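User: For documentation purposes, I need each entry recorded in a consistent format: the amino acid sequence on its own, followed directly by the corresponding structure tokens. There are two entries in this batch. Please keep commentary to a minimum and don't merge the entries.

Assistant: Recorded as requested. Entry 1:
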Amino acid sequence: MDKQWKYISPSPRGFCAGVVRAIEIVERALEKYGPPVYVRHEIVHNKYVVESLKNKGAIFVEDLSEVPPRAVTVFSAHGVARSVEEEAAVRNLPVLNATCPLVTKVHNQGKRYMSKGRALILIGHAGHPEVEGTMGQVPGPVLLVQNVDDVAELTLPVDTPVAYITQTTLSVDDTKDIISALQARFTDIQGPDIRDICYATQNRQSAVRDLSKLVDVILVVGAANSSNSNRLREIGTEVGVASYLIADGSELNPDWLKDAKAVGITAGASAPEVLVDDVIEALRRIGPVKVSVLPGREENIEFRLPAELTAG
């Protein structure tokens, strides 16, 4: 193919502060305590990251029953239910909690609303580990709504004092219609300020919307089970740009690019930059690539590591 691709990448893309923190917790635990270190669930939803940590000595499990006595255990960035924390305590497992601080903030919001006697509604995706962890952190029943139709099916009286919280990998744009439906349905409703929505989710989605105005095809680097990566692909499709989710350069299909003059590439919050580079190299094998970066919102947020890992 003799054409030159114009390749545009938005900023920000890729790792967010919560993912950086979670991965660093596992790596530092391996350095401090030596392998193996056990991680409950994928630390973040990216196969490359998980395999890299496995190669360093991390062992990933889905249930604490798979963790041997006294083994160092890490809870993933998505958070866990109280029952998991209690089981670890009963077994005296030394735990490092890699739950994203923004997820913990949602847990605390939910507990606060419920302590005030409000019925709690969680906007999120059924089965997602973050949703399961949040529902298991709040000391009472949580009503899950995934879309506007679910709001209509709620059986609570309209004057019930209610409150809502949201899955962090959903942006303001993702939740606004559901929140509006809840506000129209209930006369006494509270929820977090939009500033409490995960900054990384919103920033990456806004960047893709800007990118979609400049390109013919969008490539989203991320895992198939990554909620935020899938949403980036959906946004591109919704605005009429052919958009594809790929794990790395090996999944790039040259047919997607036949009629494209400009190709956009971004990455979900759990996708490392090395995979973006791999996709760029795959593009270069098809034809010359001219690289440009679309400016966007700068991110300089850092989250502190657990004290156990920073103490001398």
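Entry 2:
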Amino acid sequence: MAIGVSTACFYPNLTEKSVEYLAKSGVKEIEIFFNSQSETNVRFLSKIKKIADSNNMRIIAVHSYFCSYEPYLIFSDYERRFDDCLPFVDSLFDAGAILGADYAIIHGGRATGKISDEMYFERFLTLYNRGIEVGVKLAQENVNQFRSSSPAFISDMKKYLGEKANFVLDVKQCVRSGVDFYEMADAMGDSLKHIHLSDHNDRFDCMLPLQGDFDFKPFLNYSETIKNATKMVEVYNSAYKNFDEVIDSARQLEGLIY
């Protein structure tokens, strides 16, 4: 199985330029992190789709550009604001559908949010059902200081949503939350569909894979769910000096999967 790369690694490089670079580098699976509303319009997406198709690249997932506002727009206790934001979420699903993505990723609501867990799950379910209408599944990522940073919350979410639960495990977010990777993977269970890979040590919580202390080989081969999940290198641009280091990291990781 290939190790992909998220365009988020190259921010603030323009999204289309990041896709072009990944195509030229021979990366076959990618994730698109949108950075503005205009990047979800048909004309822009057609450009991205053309690059991907001509280079046999598969776009696994798209990521919400408004993730910082999700607690306020989607998971607040003001219901009208949720209703009003639905067109923005629909634009994310529509973009994913045009690009052939399996998943649309969100961060969700903060741990300090006022709505109940049940209301959170119902809001997620409403969005999930809208995404399914165009063939894109909504996926919850574990994020530090968000409700999803808790394995217990993730476990409850999985039980509530059943087969409609889809999760993204982000390694660096586990590090920042002080959560064991294996505990989070177990909480997600067979609903774990996608993984963001990074490394860390006692000084830095986000490094390129295989440059820190994380033992990737047992993790990547821990369970059939992890083996079958799609995987992306996703780091911040402070984790490397040049783009080629990101590609080299992904290729080295592929050698650890058996």
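Summary note for entry 2:
The chain has eleven helices and eight strands.
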